[in-house]
Every structure is written in C-alpha cells, then in structure tokens.
Amino acid sequence: MRRLPLTLLAAGLLLAGGIASAATTIPASAVKTAEQLRDTALHDGTAMAVVTSLTTEVGPRLAGSDADLRARQWALAKFKALGFDKVYSEPVTFPLWQRRSESGAIVAPFPQPLVLTALGYSPATPKGGLTAQVVKFSSLDALKAADPASVKGRIVYVDYRMHRQKDGHDYGMGSAVRTGGAVIAAAKGAAGYLLRSAGTDAHQRIAHTGVTGFRDPAKAIPAAALSNPDADQLDRVLAYGKPVTVRMDLDCGIVGEYTGANVIGEITGRKHPDQVVAIGGHLDSWDPGTGAIDDGAGIAITMAAAKLIGDLPQRPDRTIRVIAFANEEMGLWGSRAYAQKHAGEVGKFVLGTDSDFGAGRIWRMSASVKPQARDAIWQIAGVLAPLGVAYDASRPGGGGSDLSQMHARGMAALGLTQDGTRYFDWHHTANDTLDKIDPAELAQNVAVYAAWVYMAAQAEGDFGSAPGAFAKDGTGE
Amino acid sequence: MRRLPLTLLAAGLLLAGGIASAATTIPASAVKTAEQLRDTALHDGTAMAVVTSLTTEVGPRLAGSDADLRARQWALAKFKALGFDKVYSEPVTFPLWQRRSESGAIVAPFPQPLVLTALGYSPATPKGGLTAQVVKFSSLDALKAADPASVKGRIVYVDYRMHRQKDGHDYGMGSAVRTGGAVIAAAKGAAGYLLRSAGTDAHQRIAHTGVTGFRDPAKAIPAAALSNPDADQLDRVLAYGKPVTVRMDLDCGIVGEYTGANVIGEITGRKHPDQVVAIGGHLDSWDPGTGAIDDGAGIAITMAAAKLIGDLPQRPDRTIRVIAFANEEMGLWGSRAYAQKHAGEVGKFVLGTDSDFGAGRIWRMSASVKPQARDAIWQIAGVLAPLGVAYDASRPGGGGSDLSQMHARGMAALGLTQDGTRYFDWHHTANDTLDKIDPAELAQNVAVYAAWVYMAAQAEGDFGSAPGAFAKDGTGE
Questions:
Q1: For residue B231, which of A379, A404, B191, B196 is within the disulfide window of CB 3.0 to 4.6 Å?
Q2: Which residues of chain B lie closer than 8 angstroms to A290, CB-CB?
Q3: How far apart are CA A425 and CA B200, in angstroms?
Q4: How far apart, in whole angstroms, are the C-alpha atoms of residue B292 and residue B73?
Q5: A130 has a chain B CB within 8 A of its CB
Q6: Which residue of chain A has the CA closest to B60?
Q7: What count of other Cβ atoms lies within 10 Å of the Cβ of residue B269?
Q8: Are B353 and B475 in contact (CB under 8 A)?
Q9: What is the torsion angle, in degrees rounded to the nearest 10, for the CA atoms of residue A389, residue A393, residue A399 and residue A401?
C-alpha cells in the first residue's frame, strides 16, 4: 500500500502521455465475425465434450497427485486434438500436500460421527486422533478478540454461515474464516481448528475443503471443515451447555515438493504473433469431486472459444493463448509462477481474463483498460449484450483468479462475472461433478469468450497493458 | 396365495354373521374432543422436541450398535417424561451386522474413487478389496434374464434410476433392485454387486444404504450402492466400450447375534384397558444419518399424539399403545417378533398403523376395517379433512411398515400416506438429519394421529380385528 502513490503517478503519466494515446477501435469486419462466433458458439458442443472428457477420463486431480500428471497429458493431447498451433508446458514447483484419510466425531456428551474434511496444508493429527474440548466463535472477529487463554489446547470452531448470492461475494468472508481463522486459532495456541463449511448447501452432509493460510508448517494445526448439517448438530450439542469434546482424526500433510506445470495452447497470431490475448482456467482440482465446475468448466470454456477462432478461415491478428494453470487451489502456484516468468512481457499481454467461477451464465462485464480503449470495450459490450451480459463501466476488470497476477503486473483485464448462485453449493466438495453443468449455460460462456477474445485479437490499438498500469484498480500487488 | 380362497371364506363368514354385526360409531363428544386435539396438535412442539432430542442425544442408532442400547434407554426415559402410564420393553433377537469401513474405485481404464456404501448383510470383501470387471444391467428383469456365464466372477451393476413421486411407489422397484438384485447376482455366480442407489437425489454424492435379501450368509456376496452421480460416472466410463474394472473394499458383516428390544409406552384405557389402539415407529436407524425422517419422525409423531391424549382430563376408554420397534431396517425384526408374541391377542388390537415414511404432510387415508365400521372411518375422515387428508375408501389400510405384521394377522388397520416427494432424496443416507423435518408438517402428522387415535379409543363398537380378518386386503402373510 505504501507503494500506491508512486504507482498511481506512474500510471497517470503513462495514460496521459504514453505509448497509447490513440483511441483503440475494433474494425467492423471483426465485429461481424465476432457476432458469428458468438452465435455459432451457442450451438457448439466442444466445451461440454471437453469438460466431460476431463472429468471422466482424469476425474479428481489434486495438485501433485498421480492424476496431476494425467491431467497434464490430457491437456497437451486435447490442445493438439483441437487444432492449436503451439502446445507446451512450463514447470511449476510447489509444496506437495496429501490427503490420506479423515474422520471426526463428537466424543462427549453425545457420541456420534461428524462429517468433516481436512483443509489444504493441514498437518495430520496424532495417530488415534486429536481429542479436545470445543470452543465456539460465531465470527472471525469474535475469534480475533478471544483471549488466548480461552483457546489454548482446545479445538476452535468458527460458525460462520454462508448465503447464496449471484456474485458469490459472501465467499469473501467464508474463505477468510477458512484461511485466516485457522492461522489465528493456531497463533492463539489452539490444538485444532474447525469451521462450518464455506458453502451454501445448507442441507448436505458434504464438507467443503479448501486451503488454509498456513505458510509455515511449524505453526500449523490440524484444520478441517464440518458439513453444514454437522455444524448444525455441533451447535445443538453445544447448546446443552455441557463441555463438548470432539475428536479429529486427520492423516494428511506436506510430504515434500512437486514440480507440475502450466499447460499452454496457442492459436498463433497472423500479424502480431508476439501479442497475446490471454485466457484460461486451472487444471488442478480439489480431490473429493471431479473438478467439473472448479475448474473443468474454465478449461473447457476457454479451450472451446479459442478452438472456434482457430476454425475460422484465417488466423486472428494476435495470438490467442489458453493457459491451463497448475495448482490454483493451494495458493495460485501456477499463476504466480507464470506471472513471475512473464513479468517482463506484460506489455505484450493485450487483454486477458480467466474463467474460474463455475459454468453459470455470464451476466456482467467490467474492464481495467486505458481510457482510450473504453470505446472498444463498449464495442465488445454491444456484441455481448444479446447474451445477457451487462457492461458495468464503474467496476475494475480483475482478470479472474489466475490471470489476476498478470493484471497485477499491468496487463489490461476484463472481469466476466458468472451467475454463482449455486456455485458454493458444490465448490470444493465431492459434489463438484459433471451433472452440475448445464450445457446451454456453458455454451453461453463460450459465446462470450469467443466473441471478446476475437475482438481483442483484431483490435486496432491496444488496451493499455504496461508494467504497473492498473495498480490503482485495487488488484495491484 | 393358495390359502387365499379359504381365508376369504373365513373373512366372509366373520363379516356376515360374526361378533361384529352392529354398526360402529364414534360418539359426538369424542368427535368434538378429537377436533380439539387436532387443533391443539398443530401448535404443539412436543414432536419436534422429541425428534430433536433423539437425533441429537443418540444420533445414528444402527440395530445392535452401542447406540441401540442408548436409544432404548432414551425411549424408556422419554415415555416416562411424557407421562405414559406404563413403560416396558420386549426383547427382540436378530443377527448382528456391522459396518466398519467402505470404499470403492474405478481401477481401469480411468482410475478414480467412487462413493459407495455397503448394504445390510453384505459380507466383507477380501482384505485389499474385490477387484473385478463390471457387467451392467439396466433393470432387474435384464439381470434375471442374464446368462450366468456373462456374470460369473464379475461385479454385477444394476442401473435403475428412481424418480420422485408423492406416494413414493417407485421405491417398490428401487428396493427390489437392492434386495432381490443382490440375491440374483449371487445365485448366478457374481463376485460382487453394485446398484445405482435407490434414491431420488440425482445430484448428491451420497449413497443410499439399505438391506439386501441375503438370508444365508454362505450365499451372500459383497454388495454396495453407488451414489447417483457415481452411477452416472460409471455409465459414462462404460460407454467408452472398454472393459471397466472396479474395486470394492468393504469391511462389514454379520458377527453374531444381538438381543435388543421393542420399547413400549401406554396410556392406559379407563374402560377397556385390554383393548389397544396401536401406533408407533421404529427406533433403529441406518448409521450414516441420524435417523430423523427414518424414523425419528414416526417415533416423535406417535409419542406426541399419545401424550396429547394423555394430557386430557381423563384417560381414554381404550389403551393407546406406542411401540418403538427394534431393527426395522434389516428386516422388520422387531415387528415380526412383536406379531409373533402377540398373535393370540390380535382381536384386542382395535385399530392400528405406524408412521414410517418421513415427516411430510399426511394427504391420504385408507382403511381395512369391517363393513360395519365404515361409517366410523368416515367420521374420522371428517375430522381429518381440514388437515388436507383425503379418505380413499377404495384402498386397503396396510397398517404401516411394522404394524403391517399385526394387520397381516387380522388387526384392523389404517393407511396414512405422507407426502414422500422428497423422502427418497434422504432415505438411508447421511442426509437423514433433523434439518429435513419441517416443524409445521410434523405437527400436521401429530394432529392426524391424535385425532384418529382418540376416536378409535372412544369408538362404540370395534373395527373388525380378528385372526385372519384382512387377508383379502393383500397384506396377508
């Protein structure tokens, strides 16, 4: 934050008198082709076939598991089969966390099993489990305010209930309880950490996993999420006012380091092969489900959109780059490696965003671009409007989850918000399976991507990508 | 069936000139009290408190588990706390089946875990699991018609998909696939048995357990149910046309015999203490859930209805008997023991039915009674009509699940059909938890039971109970 004034100054200078003073525009012929791509995509089955293939043939693909390798082999083969011009991968190294087994139970006063799931980077409990008294907090703030003496040696339980929203913004708090809550509990001397799942399926005995904020294994404690009905049950048992003892039995932990890879496919630009429109999703998934909505859908949407552009009679002016990122789930490892490796080329990343919020219809577009490119964004908005996408010019672009890291370095970015009303019902659970994807909704996403990606590739002029260009948009480093 | 003509003859003789030729009627004062009970019940929280207590303090209570004993202790204490006059239990002995662990996976061609659950009376697989090729059948009939050579040594998989219905009649086939399919597969030499869960939750990775038809452990094979999305996935993998190998790893089986008990509470009749209106539910549950809808609700509805009658200024004319049956789930063990022990008293069981189809609103009543008691049934129907209960005079009564055995011996019986539209979403799964019960719907059930039970207790004349009286109604032995 202390760097912000300087960055703002740099961005201001750049926008005022930099390399990109002419207005960016999209030629009429490109607009027409984008409209055709959009309409074709609505009836194209490629994305559904791709996500079906990935979730069936590979299934769950936890970063660093055997399936991680199979997923990369799958992605390389799929890019080639779809006619991409260039297919390659770039290594990504990260801590290897494994889940081996997990169970839980109320020990007293009313013994019974609990459905829970270990969280990413949780260490194992001692053999036979960790048994301790539960201390409950209704919010992250309540935990922050807690006297460490009230927490020491106990299992901290934070009971924050997420609610369904179209834009899913309650996940901001839901994920903070998971990532930050675990760290705070550990710092206060807790023996273990439990949360009500960061999920909106109020009635399913299915727990939502996800990463914790543990960075130093020496300071980590066993951490798990209860399904919503199990959290309800624990609440009822606690309400009797007697001491409640719970056993967590987690066999999991970091066992070393693993080198996976971002897998990349390109439709090579005809005029400006070095200028890139960047899209993608992440190839890894959590292990309980088959990673259909998170993020097989993103992989499928962006592969299919680029493939439709590749099917045109001639290559687009700029390169379309689809990046299947490694290990997003345990901390944007592929994303960060990518941004670090390609930081110097950020000015060549003309426009980008990735898809990582399921397979619901896109209903909102936003953009972080230079002022002279706003008209081109309005041109894109005009092509997307028939798909039900409303352009909100007041919001920054964001760039998705993985490409947020390139955006943070100065890549111009879109934000394409999907309807996430049901997303957190299934997110990070065994229920993240193919049946949760509606083919028509998935095709709408492909239509959006095919249209805007093509228009960005054909734009006359750029969107303002330059080192540090968008730090003021709130996604800066 | 060969006994039917004789039984019909006997029933005809009985009805034509037997002990019960006078018309049965319910006095106006009893009708009025029943209406008051009905209206009071709609605002009474006893049933919800009872099912909350059972599912929270005992939780899952698989027949023969440690929790079976705790459930009986709970029931004895609860009957007493609710003011029942007589509380006792009657022993029930049954084979003790235990579930220790279960897992499954597709081994080839696309290795990935499968969500499955072992079925009641399934034996264990060998240590390390049973791995075999899958052979799929789309129906029970297709399996029946199969050449044993096509099945021998394989894992038979029957892919019957249940659909939601208000009366849940698709469970007839769903349960037949589970109970009968396993037996047929074993008889044809299969190594293992899998079915698509007999459940209507098409999108939940939660498998539905339930009993098989295995009666001779020597002829049983490992048997399990896949969750619906896992069955979808197996179907997709099979559709590639390659041999599909699955591993089932079940640690479960019969380990001996156990003696539990039916637990019984009575509101003793003032005039005819030996004449009984019989209601109840079953106290055991499957182990993955907490047995809220199956059958904590039935226990709660009938305990609460009798308690409301017990709260009246004076005891009813006849005894109200609430029976919390043992081990319904693995084959009506408590029910059969009860009927065997009390067969000689069937004429004293004036009218009965139990509640074992969840907590949805009762929408239909039917009755198996002597013709001279039809008018009294119409009187009951008149009191229940404001609750949305329609009397279908064309259907037999049935007597529920556990009291069907007394009905089969000649007890006059009602049928009270609950709305089961969602019942098979949760039935026999981890999702059978308290949050699935709507307090207002539960209270409607109590209102129905309180009203009819009281009217039956006050009826002038009987309903035709006598040995073998209702064999023609299709529920005979």
A1: B196
A2: 112, 233
A3: 18
A4: 18
A5: no
A6: A112
A7: 22
A8: no
A9: -70
Please write the tens of the pLDDT for every residue from B1-21: 333 344 444 444 444 444 446
Note the pLDDT tens digit of each residue in A436-464: 999 999 999 999 999 999 999 999 999 99
Of A112, A430, A436, which has the smallest distance from its Cβ to B60's Cβ?
A112
Selected for mutation to probe chain A from B54, B69, B204, B242 (highest A CB count within 10 Å) is B204
pLDDT digits (tens, 9 = 90+) for A221-265: 999 999 999 999 999 999 999 999 999 999 999 999 999 999 999
Angle at A358 between CA A356 and CA A361, to 5 degrees: 110
CA distance B431 to chain A (A): 6
Contact assignment for B233 to A113 by CB distance below 8 Å = no
A315, A416, A415, A402: which is closest to A361 by C-alpha? A416
B248 touches chain A (CB under 8 A): no
pLDDT in tens, A107-128: 999 999 999 999 999 999 999 9
- Residues in chain B with CB shorter than 8 Å from the CB of A288 are 205
pLDDT of residue A476: 36
- Identity of residue A42: L
Is residue A153 left, alpha or beta, with left meaning phi > 0 and alpha meaning psi from -120 to 50?
A: left
Per CB-CB distance under 8 Å, the chain B contacts of A110 are 56-59
On the question of pLDDT at B247 being above 50, the answer is yes
B407-422 pLDDT per residue, tens: 999 999 999 999 999 9
Distance CA B328, CA B400 (A): 12
DSSP A178-233: HHHHHHHHHHTT-SEEEEE-S-S-TT-S-----B-S---GGG---EEEE-HHHHHH
Contacts of A59 in chain B (CB under 8 A): 110-113, 233
Give the Cα separation of A265 and A278 in Å (integer).
10
Encoding tokens for residue A68?
């991680």
Structure tokens given for A195: 């949360």
Handedness of CA B433, B438, B443, B446 (dihedral sign): negative
pTM of the entire predicted model: 0.94
- pLDDT tops 90 at residue A471: no
Nearest-CA distance from A61 to chain B in Å?
9
Tokens standing for residue A204 = 């399913």
pLDDT category of residue A474 using cuts at 50, 70 and 90? low
Are A112 and B59 within 8 A, CB to CB? yes
**Residue B12 and residue B346: Cα distance in Å, rounded?**
18
Q: Mind listing the pLDDT tens digit for each residue in B80-125?
A: 999 999 999 999 999 999 999 999 999 999 999 999 999 999 999 9
Residue A6 has pLDDT above 50, yes or no: no
Omega of the bond prior to A295 within 30 degrees of 0, cis? yes
pLDDT band at A473 (very low <50, low <70, confident <90, very high): confident
B200: contact with A, CB 8 A cutoff: no
ipTM score here? 0.94
Closest CA to A300 of A434, A132, A142, A477: A434
Cβ distance B68 to B92 under 8 Å?
A: no
Identity (one letter) of the amino acid at A39? D
Q: Is A115 on the interface with B (CB under 8 A)?
A: yes
Give me the phi and psi of B265, to 5 degrees please.
-125, 140
Tell me which chain B residue has its CA closest to the CA of residue A202: B435
